[in-house]
Amino acid sequence: MFFIEAKRIIVVIFGALLMAISLNFFLINANVYASGFSGAAQLVSSILNDQFGVSLSTGILLLLFNIPVFILGWFKVGRGFTIYSIISVAFTTLFLEVLPVLSLSNDIILNAVFGGVIAGVGVGLSLKLGASTGGMDIVAMVLSRLQDKPIGTYFLLLNGIIIVLAGFLYEPENALYTMVALYVTTSVIDMLHTRHEKVTAMIITHKADKLQQAIHEKMVRGITIVPAKGAYSGEEKSMLYLVITRYELYDLEKIINDVDSQAFTNVVQTVGIFGFFRREGEAVK
User: Fold this and answer.
1) Where are the alpha helices (H) located in the chain, listed in sequence order?
2) Contacts of 211 (CB under 8 A, 6+ apart)
3) Taking phi first (over 0 means left), then psi (-120 to 50 degrees means alpha), and beta for anything else, what does residue 267 get?
4) pTM for the full model?
5) What is the pLDDT of residue 213?
6) Domains along the chain with CATH numbers
């Protein structure tokens, strides 16, 4: 258990370093913006400096933007998830303040592509181990648990505002290159983890009752249990069928390994769902 948590913290810190490198070495000087709260902090920092002569770094603004989100996450999501978010944002802020702001290339498209790739790797690695990078991740987690809103809409709205302001306040090309950076970041995250809002897990196991109990102790999700039979072995088994959010995927993998390491699990993209999707505070009828 200690090894797993230590590994997760190390990966979160490494992800924070990659995010800081992406911003300080590629995106900031090129006026190309990252996604989510990092991009919002970067944009506000640019506006304050260029329009009002106020020097407030991206790292400090990122930390300030996340404070109310941390409070929300602490009470609505859970302490563990929020603590990893705090670690991620704190170290991102630290690295942004320590690392110099450089221009490794004068080619704006190289800055957009490499900055997007490095940021995507940092976020994707954190998500893969069930950690959060703060900001919109916590907001998305809260919404998915409470109201089951289309989370992609909120990401699109925030990133859309960043893109429009980048084009309006600076050159229109900056908006286009910001779109390139956002596309690259999302694609890399998708390769490492998943950006799909929901995924469907089908688990073939001999220990359906124990697995169902373990999942319900950790998650607020409905499960359908279906009888299954191995075509080759002829063994009688059960299949657990459930839909989860992408933030719960790491926890589900860990539960399955702890309860039945021999279980076979297929996780597929869920394009959309109709009908009842259990939310926090609701009981299964």
Assistant:
1) 2-22, 36-52, 58-76, 79-98, 108-128, 136-146, 151-169, 172-192, 208-218, 249-259
2) 203, 205, 240, 255, 256, 259, 260, 263
3) beta
4) 0.74
5) 94
6) 2-192 (no CATH), 198-270 (3.30.70.120)
